[in-house]
Amino acid sequence: MSVVCSFALAPLQADEKYSFAEPHLGTIVEITLYAADENGANQAAQAAFRRVKDLDHIFSDYKPDSEVMRLCARAGEDEAVAVSPELFHLLKRSIEISNQTNGAFDVTIGPLVQLWRQSRKRKVLPTQDEIQQARSSVGWKFLVLDDAQQTVKLTKRGMRLDFGGIAKGYVAQEMSRILREQGFDQSLVAVAGDIVAGNPPPGTTGWKVGVAPLDRPNGAVSRLLSLRDCAVSTSGDAFQFVEIAGVRYSHIVDPQTGLGLTYRSSVTVVAPEGAIADSLATAICILGPERGLPLLDLHDQTAALIVHASSDGPQVVESKSFATFDAR
C-alpha cells in the first residue's frame, strides 16, 4: 500500500525474522518484521503495540470511558465537541465511504448493532418496532464535522458510533506506520482479518498471505496472495454467526434491514490503505458483487475477491486486477 505518511529514517539492515503477538481489540494482534538485532525489533514492536492501546481508548464501544463513548453520550446536544485528530480523521473517512456506498457502510449503525448483539445472545429476532426505534438514530448524514475547528456534532439523540467495519484496518495501518518510523519497513501487521504489508522480506517480491476457503475457514488456503506496501481485509461470517429458527444470520448487520446477513459470503479487498480495505470489504459483503464491485473504481490500486455460497457450491467473483496479487 502507499502508506499514508513519509518516512525520514532509512530502514535498518534486516537480517533476522522476529514475530510478536499480544491480545488487543478482542483478538490477537500479530507483528512479523525483519531486523538486524532482537533488541531493536522488540522496541519497535512494543511501540506499535502501545499505539494499539492508545487507539483502543479512542475507538472502543466496549469501554464506557473511550473517546467515542464520551462523544456518543453528548448526541443530540447543540454544542459541537472537539475530538482527537485520529477520531476526526476516521469519522471523515467513514463519511466518505458511506456516501460512496449509499449507507451500506455506516459508522452510525451502533444502535442496530447493539440490538443485534442482544438478539444473537438471546437467539431471538428483534421485533420490527425495536428495529424501527434503533434505526431512527442511524444515519451518517446526522454527523456534522467542522474541518476548521476539528469538531463533531451528533445531531440526533440516541446516536451511537460503531467502528467495527473500519477501525481494525486503520489500527493495522497505524502500527505499520510506527514500525516504519522506527526504521523497520520489512514488516507485516495482522489484526484479525485486517493485514498491512510493508516492504517484502529479504530476497522475495512480497509477503505471502492466504485466503481461507468459504466452507472451511480453518482449512488449507484457497488462494495465495503476494503483497507489498498494501493492505488486505477479509470480511464474512465464517466464524461469527448465529442460527435462529433454522436461519443462519451473520454478525454483519445490514443497515437497511437491521438484521444480520442471511447469505454466506467472504469478501477480500486489497487496497492502498487499511481503513479503505476494511470498510470496502464490509460494504461489499452487504451489497453483493453486482453493486459492490463498482465501488473499486472509486479507489486506485484496489481489487476484490468475492466468494459466496450457492446450491452448486462456492461461487467466485473477482475484479479484473485481483489476479495481479496472486503469488507466482
Write a concise synopsis of the structure shown.
This protein is of the alpha+beta class. Helices cover 30% and strands 24% of the residues. Strand 1 and strand 2 (27-35) form a beta hairpin.
Strand arrangement within the widest β-sheet reads 1-2-6-7-10-13-14-15
Which of globular, elongated, flat, extended, rod-shaped describes the shape? Answer: globular
Structural class: alpha+beta
Query: Tally of extended strands?
Result: 15
SS element count, helices? 7
Helix content: 25-40%
* Percent strand: 15-25%
Mean pLDDT, nearest integer? Answer: 91
Low-confidence stretches: 1-14
Largest sheet: 8 strands, antiparallel
Rounded to the nearest angstrom, the radius of gyration is 20 Å
- End-to-end separation: 19 Å
H/E topology pattern: EEHHEHHHEEHEEEEEEEEHEE
Q: How would you describe this structure in keywords?
A:
about 325 residues; alpha+beta; eight-stranded antiparallel sheet; three-stranded antiparallel sheet; 7 helices; globular
Summarize the SSE layout with pairings.
Elements: E1 16-24, E2 27-35, H1 38-59, H2 67-72, E3 81-82, H3 85-101, H4 110-122, H5 128-135, E4 143-146, E5 151-154, H6 167-181, E6 187-191, E7 194-197, E8 207-211, E9 223-227, E10 230-236, E11 241-244, E12 247-250, E13 265-271, H7 274-292, E14 303-308, E15 315-318
Antiparallel strand pairs: 1-2, 2-6, 3-5, 4-5, 6-7, 7-10, 8-9, 10-13, 11-12, 13-14, 14-15
